[in-house]
Amino acid sequence: MSNPSEFFPTGKIKSKILSQLLDKYCSSKIDDRVILGSRIGEDAAVIDMGDKYLVAKTDPITFLDYKPGIYNNIGFWVVNVNVNDVACCGAIPKWFQTTILLPEKGTTEELIEKIFKEIHETCKNLGISVVGGHTEITVGLDKPMAIGCLMGEVEKDKLVKTSGAKVGDAIILTKGIVIEGTSIIATEKERELLERGLDKQFIERCKQFIYDPGISVLKEAILANQNFEIHAMHDPTEGGLACGLFELTYSSCTGILIDYNLIKILPESEKLCNIYGLNPLGTISSGSLLITLDEKDSTDLIDLLIENGIYAVKIGKIVEKKEGLKIIKDGIKNKLVYSEKDEITKIF
Prior knowledge:
By secondary structure, the protein is an alpha+beta fold. It contains 10 helices and 13 strands.
């Protein structure tokens, strides 16, 4: 029997342990059509289907708390987090399935229909067909959970891998960080924030961050990949920007040099992080997109994204692996600290 000191914390399993398990048990080599299987940092699997690649992703929504009578947009969320990972491969999302697990207490027909409706409407707006799934009421749950499975297609010469980053590449960050985290904090801690004296309009604005600036990176991923030779794309989710940058470098066997002062943190996000003592660099950040490409194309890409209403900025560059993960803040260079355990777990 394990003793308590051996129990894992909430969040992603440590990369070292997961890598060992994948090396030991990964079976992707059984079929030579598997172009990209299970690897740390890669956003999705890639399978050769002849004239195109099929890109497949599964991702759950587990952070959202639930109280009977209070709906938390889980349908919208589960579609978009899967769309982001497929988009990071340069693919167009096509087919979606969901496993919906519901608690014994508080599950009503109205709740089930809301989740179904939101999944279908979100997919319809993105041109995605809902092709199946599974729904059940599950023993031991205190909140709904949704696990999405999304498949998309990409032309073979437009596939993008996280592992494709090259030394000398510029690193572009879109929108800013903690977009998803801001909405989660405002949704889960609304009553507490009101008691702290925060304005209701401010809290509502933070809750709406999933829509504006938005947690989807599909538009910017398509714009980038259709107009430039993109070497790598990755969206920072659990563990925030810092963990996302680690995954990028781990996959591509490189290092990074980041300028902290160029990282955009929206005022609302910064305020909520300060209230709960969260490090913005380590807080869940769906809605941000990391893009690496040749330095000579970086300004043109930034201009294109801004012309299309998407804020973008160069925050650093890819360097040799031996240089490690470094971040400069106010002229001082330090090691970039990351953790698989997301900062947002502190609020639950």
